[in-house]
Every structure is written in C-alpha cells, then in structure tokens.
Amino acid sequence: MTEFTPLASLIGGMLIGLSTVLMLLLEGRIAGISGIAARALPPWREGVPAGRLAFIAGLVAAPFLVGAVTGEPVMQTVSANVLLMVAAGLLVGFGSVWGSGCTSGHGVCGLARLSPRSMVATGLFMATGFATVFIVRHVIGG
C-alpha cells in the first residue's frame, strides 16, 4: 500500500510547476521529459545540449538529494521481471511518440494551457493506468 504524504506531495507539485514555468520562460519550450530526452541524444543539430543534459541529470540526482536532505532513503519498488520491464519501457516509448508527448508534457504543461489534445492524451494516460493497476492487482494477482 502507498502512504499519502500531503506536504511532500504539495512541495513536489510546486517544484514541478516552478520547473515547467522556468523552462518555458528561459528556453521557450514545454517541459516534456520525452522531448527533452530525445533531443539530448545525438545527432545534435545545435551542439551539445547542456541544458537538456542538466535537466536529465537533475531527474536522476533528485532521489539522492532527497535522501541526503531527509536522511531517509527514497523507496521505489521496481519489478524484477526483466521481460515485463522491457515490454513496459517499449510501450511507454511507443505511447509517447504516438501521442506526440508524454505525461509531463501533456499532463502538466498541456493541461495548464487548456490544450484539447493534451486533455484527450491525459485522459487516455490515466484510463490506461487505472486499467493496468486493476488488471495487475485483481486479474493477474500482483
């Protein structure tokens, strides 16, 4: 079972909002993780994308920084089933390409801009997530 942490959730949401606003103001771009990651890989059109690499490094470093500040390790449960993880990664990658963006681009930035396309995409992300959790917990028995 997952424990609800309202203060940590509020602070996390505020930091996500702040980072998306800063990215839009400073870079003129939407903070969609799939687009940032895709443009961080070579070949680069405009040289090494230091800002994008720093953004990705921040995503990787964040749990370690939280652990250092709080003194508590960040707990994350990941399946040990490698085939399942590969399939999940491919499906997420396919979905973000097919949907022209990911949950952060559509769900955070697109909804804030009242984008109809992002509303549909986020609804589909959420419905798929709900269905997946239901199937894993009640049908497969995970």
Q: Helical stretch count?
A: 6
Structural class comes to: mainly alpha
Task: Please indicate the percent range of residues in DSSP E strands (runs of 2 or more).
Answer: under 5%
- End-to-end distance: 12 Å
Number of strands: 0
Q: Please bin the fraction of helical residues.
A: over 70%
Q: State Rg.
A: 17 Å
Instruction: Give the low-pLDDT segments.
Output: none
Topology:
Layout: H1 6-27, H2 33-40, H3 50-70, H4 82-98, H5 103-112, H6 116-140
Helix pairs in contact: 2-3, 5-6
Plain-language structure description:
This protein has 142 residues and is mostly helical. Helix content is 73%, strand content 0%. The protein contains 6 helices and no strands. The longest helix has 25 residues, at 116-140. The chain is globular and about 50 Å long. The two termini are 12 Å apart.
